[in-house]
Amino acid sequence: MNESTVDDSMELSEGHVTDKIRACLDGELAPDEAARVRAHCARCRACHRAWTEIENLYRILESDTGAEPLRPVWPGVRERIGEPRRGLARFPFAVGASAAAAAGLLLGLLLGSVGETLGSRAESSWSEVGTLLTDSGTSLDDLYLSGLANGGESQ
Amino acid sequence: MERTARGDEGAFRLLVERWERPVFGFLERMLSSREEAQDMSQETFLRVFAEAGRYRPDGRFRSWLFRIAGNLARSRLRRDRVVRWIRLEPLLHDPPDPGARADDLLERDEKRRAVRTALARLPDRQRQAVVLQRYQGLSYREVAAAMDTTVPAVESLLQRAMALLKKELAGERKEQ
């Protein structure tokens, strides 16, 4: 697109077409619409800039020309035609069952870990109660009797 | 395809030889690994052969072909992420060091690497849309068919992808 034809006044007098530039460059617009977009971009500085930016980006992307296959694909395909599909892909139900089993195992491990933590905390709490009782010279029987005396339930 | 569906091996061989480069090119950009792309290319054509009877000639063949290749690539990417998560190790064919900015790769012969780095950093679906549209030359409608989505969704994927690529390749653009 020719820079010399760009007119700043177009930015005010006409709606921009920036949302259509990429589609235009990608060949996705009908010929008449593409012509309108091109004509606008030739005169509007903002749209011209957007057009150039996209064009530059495309040029950079095109510098990646891609790679050739490492070897022809056919011999490997030929060898495997008629073979049953590899592994679990042949048994979709087995994939689902394996996933469910793995999820169950993970959940089990998680719950086990949480339970273990809670258990060790409870054990630690009982140990602390024991230490307090020993330090204060009170037995569990004393506590039980004291509870009954206060109207507590003996469970 | 009709002859392939009838089990004509010669016809299938022609089909493989006609499409192996585009399929490999697509998979290599999707997976960032030539070995993986080679393996998945073979898998794609085996799937084509196995499902040839289900192909309906009313659609575009290349959309159907790239849909198969795309599904395989994305499930391979998902699987690799799970394996990486379980093993707590990086992928062998991960994109280059995330610390390395594309705009640091200024040498002319590094341009391709910069493009690959930028492509590899795109989310899978955005990368798939870009590779199909820009490198394989599919129309928006064909990309939509290959990705099992709509044309506006493809436009949106491309728009977001281009914005990210523009940012990633800012250094390269200054070089132009």
Overall structural class of chain A, as computed from helix and strand content, comes to mainly alpha
Mean pLDDT of chain A: 71
Kindly report the oligomeric state of this protein.
heterodimer
> Number of helical runs of chain B?
9
Question: What is the string of helix and strand elements of chain B?
Answer: HHHHHHHHH
Global structural class of chain B? mainly alpha
| Regions with little confidence, pLDDT below 50 for 5+ residues of chain A | 8-13, 87-93, 151-155
Rg over C-alpha atoms of chain B, rounded to the nearest angstrom: 17 Å
Count up the domains of chain B: 2
Terminal CA distance of chain B? 44 Å
What is the fold-level CATH name, i.e. the topology of the largest domain in chain B? Rna Polymerase Sigma Factor, Chain: A
Which of globular, elongated, flat, extended, rod-shaped describes the shape of chain A?
elongated
Largest sheet of chain B: none
**Gyration radius of chain A, rounded:** 38 Å
Tell how many strands the DSSP assignment of chain A holds.
0
Number of E-type strands of chain B: 0
3D structure, described in words:
- The complex is a heterodimer of chains A (155) and B (176).
- Chain A has 155 residues and is an all-alpha fold.
- In chain A, 68% of the residues lie in helices and 0% in strands.
- Chain A has seven helices and no strands.
- Chain B is mostly helical and 176 residues long.
- Chain B folds into two domains: 1-94, RNA polymerase sigma factor, region 2, helix turn helix motif (Rna Polymerase Sigma Factor, Chain: A, Orthogonal Bundle); 98-176, Winged helix-like DNA-binding domain superfamily/Winged helix DNA-binding domain (Arc Repressor Mutant, subunit A, Orthogonal Bundle).
- In chain B, helix 6 crosses helix 8.
- Chain B starts with a helix and ends with a helix.
- In chain B, 41% of the residues are buried.
